[in-house]
């Protein structure tokens, strides 16, 4: 039978808050954020292109491409990395 009075982790006493290096976690989070941000823009551009391309009236590849290009430029403008102040 298990001893319920024993500590759950024998290394719990060795833990020191803030002592663990987190550079890999920061890099992974930055990669995830970038892929999410730019991937969402790519999906939005593709959906706009296809929606305008296959419109019943007035649609076509050229208007869809222009609309998707405008969205891509606007999205790049708003989603790009801003320079850090100080």
Description:
It comes from Brevundimonas balnearis. Pfam families: COX4_pro_2. This is Aa3-type cytochrome c oxidase subunit IV. There is one protein chain. The chain is built from two helices and no strands. The chain is mostly helical. The chain has a domain of 44 residues. Helix 1 runs antiparallel to helix 2. The model has no long low-confidence stretch (mean pLDDT 87).
Percent of residues in beta strands?
A: under 5%
Note the overall shape. elongated
Order of helices and strands: HH
> Kindly, what is the distance between the CA atoms of the first and last residues, rounded to a whole number of angstroms?
60 Å
- Number of DSSP E strands: 0
Q: Specify the structural class.
A: mainly alpha
Mean pLDDT: 87
Oligomer: single chain
How large is the count of helical segments?
2
Radius of gyration: 25 Å
Main sheet overview: none
Tell me roughly what share of residues is in helical segments. Answer: 55-70%
Q: Are there runs of 5+ residues with pLDDT below 50, and where? A: none
List the helices and strands and how they pair.
Layout: H1 23-53, H2 61-79
Q: Can you summarize this structure?
A:
The protein is mainly alpha-helical and 86 residues long. The chain has 2 helices and no strands. Helices cover 58% and strands 0% of the residues.
Defining traits:
86 residues; mainly alpha; elongated
